[in-house]
Each structure stands twice: as C-alpha cells, then as structure tokens.
C-alpha cells in the first residue's frame, strides 16, 4: 500500500483544484497562462488555510471523455501541475483526469512528482452520462509497475454520477477494489458533486477494506465533518467555493473554517 501521509494523522484534508475549461474543451476561454495563474491562486488559499494536500482535476472540460483524453488535455494538465508542484512542493498532490483516464493521470503524476491519482472506475462497470465505463485496473497496475512509479491509486467505490451495471453488495465491491484491483485508498461519495455519502455505507466500506485508508470524497462541509468520524480523511471541493459552486473561486474564509472545524474535532 502506498499512502502519502503518516497513518497516525487523523483526517488529512485534500483540497480540490478544479481547473477551468482547458484548451480544446467546448467551453474553453482562458489561455493556459491564465489557467495557471487561476490555479496557483486557489492553491495558495488552500496552503495558507492549512490543507494537507491538493487534487488537480479537469473539472471544466465537460462533457467528459469516458476513457482516454486528447493529448492537448494531458499537455495542459501537466503544465499546470508542474507549476503547482514548483510553488507548493510540501503538499502531496493528486491528479484526476475525468472521466476515467487513469493512465494519463498516472503519466502526469509520474512526470511531475505527484503522490497519487484518482480513478473513478478502477474495477467493475458503471453506467454514467458518458455511457458504460469499465474498470482499468488491469492496464493501470501494469503501467505503474513498468514506470516504477511510487504513485498511489485512490479509487472510488460506487462513484457519484453513476449507477451499477449489475448491483453487488457495497462491501464486496470495496473489498475487491483493494484485493483484486490494487487500490491503495478507497473513496466514498454521495450520488452527485457536493452530495454527502451515507454514513452507514461509509462504515460498511471501512469495515470491508481492513487497514486501507478510506476518504470521504464528496459533500464534506465544516458542519458535517464530525459526522464522518469513520473516515481516514476528506477530499473537499464544492463547500470551499463561493456560493458552494464548484465552477467559482475558492473562498478563503470557507477554507479556514473547514481546517478550524477539523482541528477542533480532533482535540
């Protein structure tokens, strides 16, 4: 298992860096230089607030490719990731290439020294707005081995914005993510962006995966953080943003509030 934080650290906070539409995407409007400045400003807010890590994601590129993205997307994300790593080398960074291009995420991570990647569908199959997306563990784990990359794989179980092609017990899916799919960290979400997971389902996943870390990866706010005590940590996105809109800038007061509430809950 690869994990970028001490296992004794309770509730690491990973802040989302939602990239504006990148060059080549339908809603693209900013230059790459503008996107870099935008992302560095958001990263500065998170670092100053006391977040423990960052996650870079091409959130603005909808509608998303179900699998491999174009070369321009990989090049643009790599350019931004290099600048974020240069500015904040002390913060472990993750890469998520939507919707399920884990191989490109791994390539970017290996090139820039990122610590982990997020894969929405590592195992099994899910029905999504991009169609049916199938697991990529068989390719991804072999590619990581070939690259000799110390990059952790953070994988969703029953990922948001999707439905099971053939429903199975949640604990069984979670267990297979780590035992057969090679996931280092399991992510639990609600049904959509900004939606909190079911607490009982979080506990079910926690019990199923043994010593592997389990992060809540959607819907975490300062007000509900303590309700998810079974989690190892949190990926925070929408609740950091102005008006809770993931397309807007990160609000410094919201970021500080989440860190403050995390610290108070730990004491």
Largest sheet: 8 strands, parallel, barrel
SS field, number of helical segments: 7
Number of strands: 11
Would you identify the CATH H-level superfamily? Aldolase class I
- Spatially, the strands of the biggest sheet line up as 1-2-3-4-7-9-10-11
Give the name of the CATH architecture. Answer: Alpha-Beta Barrel
Question: What do the pLDDT scores average to?
Answer: 95
Distance between the termini: 28 Å
Shape: globular
Taken in chain order, the helices and strands follow as EHEHEHEEEHEEHEHEEH
Q: What number of domains?
A: 1
Low-pLDDT runs:
none
CATH class: Alpha Beta
Which secondary-structure class do the elements indicate? Answer: alpha/beta
Examine the coordinates and then state which fold CATH places here, giving the name of the CATH topology. Answer: TIM Barrel
Instruction: Supply Rg.
Output: 17 Å
Beta-strand proportion: 15-25%
Helix share of residues?
25-40%
How would you describe this protein?
- It is a single chain.
- The chain has 267 residues and is of the alpha/beta class.
- The chain has one domain: TIM Barrel (Alpha-Beta Barrel), CATH 3.20.20.70.
- It has helices at residues 32-49, 71-87, 102-112, 137-147, 170-179, 199-208, 252-266; strands at residues 13-18, 53-57, 93-96, 116-119, 125-128, 131-134, 152-157, 162-164, 185-188, 214-216, 233-236.
- The strands form 2 sheets. An 8-stranded parallel β-barrel has the order 1-2-3-4-7-9-10-11, surrounded by 5 helices. It has a 3-stranded antiparallel sheet with strand order 6-5-8, with no helix packed on it.
- α3 links the parallel β3 (93-96) and β4.
